[in-house]
Structure formats: C-alpha cells, structure tokens
Amino acid sequence: MEQMNTVDISTINEKIEKESAFIDLLMMEMNKVIVGQKYMVERLLIGLLGRGHILLEGVPGLAKTLAINTLSKAVQGSFSRIQFTPDLLPADVVGTLIYNIKENDFSIKKGPIFANFVLADEINRAPAKVQSALLEAMQEKQVTIGDETFVLDKPFLVMATQNPVEQEGTYPLPEAQVDRFMLKTVIDYPKLDEEQLIIRANLKGSFETVNPVVSTEQILRAQEAVKEVYMDEKIERYILDIIFATRYPEKYNLESLKPLINFGASPRGSINLASAAKCYAFIKRRGYVVPEDVRAVVHDVLRHRIGITYEAEAENITSVDIVNKIVNEIEVP
Questions:
Q1: What is the CA radius of gyration of the chain?
Q2: Residues 23 and 41: beta-carbon distance below 8 Å
Q3: pLDDT digit string (tens) for 106-154?
Q4: How far apart, in whole angstroms, are the C-alpha atoms of residue 213 and residue 73?
Q5: Which regions of the chain are under pLDDT 50?
Q6: Beta strands in 48-154 (DSSP E)
Q7: What domains can be seen in the chain, in order of their start residue?
Q8: What is the pLDDT of residues 28-50, one digit of tens each?
Q9: In sequence order, what are the residues at sequence separation of 6 or more whose Cβ sits closer than 8 angstroms to the Cβ of residue 93?
Q10: CA–CA separation, 216 vs 197, rounded Å?
Q11: Cys staple from 126: which of 44, 58, 84, 300, with CB 3.0 to 4.6 Å?
C-alpha cells in the first residue's frame, strides 16, 4: 500500500510539473510591468487557479489596477473595470433591459461583469445593494437580467480593492459578504530599490508591452489540475485544527484568545484554506501539499473571517495577531 502511494505521488508530481510550466512564463511577463509586489501577483494567481476572488487592501498607487490588467493581457482574457461610487446602481454592474423603439421590444445590454477579469475598484464606496449584486454574481457565476439568466465567462476572477485610509462616504462590506472572498490580501509599500526602478520606468515613459503567453484554455486546464494536487489526511487535520482553534480556542490550549474572538472562521474558511494551499503547491510546481503551503496562505484566507471583540480592539489586537498565535500553537504534522 505504501509503495502504491509513492508511485501515485510521483505520477501526480510529474503531471503537475508539466501543467504548471506556464507559471514561470506568466510571472516573467507580469514582472515586465509590475516591479516587486511578488506577493500580490502570487495571490492573484492563487485566486485565479482556485476559482476564487480576491480582496486587496492597500493605499493608492501600489499597482493594484495595473496588476490585474497586466494579468488579463498575459492570459488573453477580457478585462473590465468598475469604479464603485455612491451613486452606482446594480444595473451599472450586471446590465439592464433597454427598450428599443424600432423593434418595439426590450433588448439586453450586458454590464461590465461580463469579463474574465473584473476589477471592482474601491468596493466600499458603493451602497450595499450594488455590493450584493456583485457578490451574487461572484458566488453563483451567473447573472439574471429580466427573466433571462446568463452564465459568466470562464475563467472568472473578481479583484476588489479597498482603500484603508478614507472612512468618509464608505459603506464597509458586511462580514457575511466579505466571507465570499477567497483571500483578503494587504499590500505594503515597495522596497527602496524597487521604488527606484518604478521612478525610472515612469520618467522614461517606456513600459514594456505585455504579450499574451497563456490561453484561457490553459488556465481552465490548470484549475482542473489543481484539484489533483495530493493532500494527505494529516494536512487536512492540520487545516481543521487551525479553523477549529478560531472557534473553540480553549480546546487548543489558547484560553487567552476566547475573550478576543467574537466569531471564528466558517466552513468556507476551511474549504478555501485547503484550496489555496493546493494552489500554492501548484504555483511552486509541486504535486503534493506540505504544511508550509498552509502557513503561506493562512493569513490571507483567515484575516477577514475572524470577528474580533471590542476587548481585542481596545488592546490593539488584530485578526492577524490571533492567526499568528493559533499557527504558533497548533502542532505541525
């Protein structure tokens, strides 16, 4: 039995290595335009391969829009950008029925949600009804306009951005809706030498052209291949221990966290943590998941899924601090 497992792993490994060959090519193409920000680019790929969506938080000017636009060009996918504003309507996102006088009939005008890569810029600027229209499309992968239902293009990735600086005139996403995002990634300023390169490139005004290096069919094949990445039962238990520690910290020798957690991660958290770990292993061109893969993505998957109490806020303890304590306490298989 042990022997069979070993053979299986090596076969899977070979297949994944072959299927993931385009990752390096895609990264190189994106690096032509995006300086640094490797972390953000990797997270975008995890979202794409895991059929999830990503919420990016960072101050303006960190190449968030540029990153998803570059990815869409490198993947030969369609790209659309929705600038969320307080006067936006759900029809501006999904589309609407338009009355045609000549035909004496209604025709359907599809909205910007009909694209492979959708950038929802400053999602917290639009009211709840617009946010929920977008989130419904993200969850169901389909849109209903009038009495017709349209299936969205595949692959379909929504990258929503939030500006953490301004609170005025914003509508924070409710916890239950934030849970729809596979990852919430917080990005930081570039390093000094990276920013020097950014200045030079901008002053020259000579940006390299991004060429399509991967087809959407290859991405769809890769999404299927990710499912085949081997995850041992011990890794599954490790993931479940981390998730359950957010719900019942006292059972994991973490009594001090009980008064700091309002609610723990939902089952979506455990599904997405397992899926993101598989995608991370795939990006690293490996056919099996190791504990380091789980640890690499755990903050992005759980950051927005743990509710903290007023007590935690008063002590300046964030959900990331809680995840750190849990990950340091849970035994690694």
A1: 21
A2: no
A3: 878 888 999 888 998 888 888 888 888 888 888 888 888 878 888 888 8
A4: 9
A5: 1-4, 7
A6: 54-57, 79-83, 95-100, 105-110, 117-121, 142-145, 148-151
A7: 33-198 (3.40.50.300), 229-329 (1.10.8.80)
A8: 888 888 877 788 888 989 999 99
A9: 82, 111, 112, 113, 130, 133, 134, 137
A10: 31
A11: 84
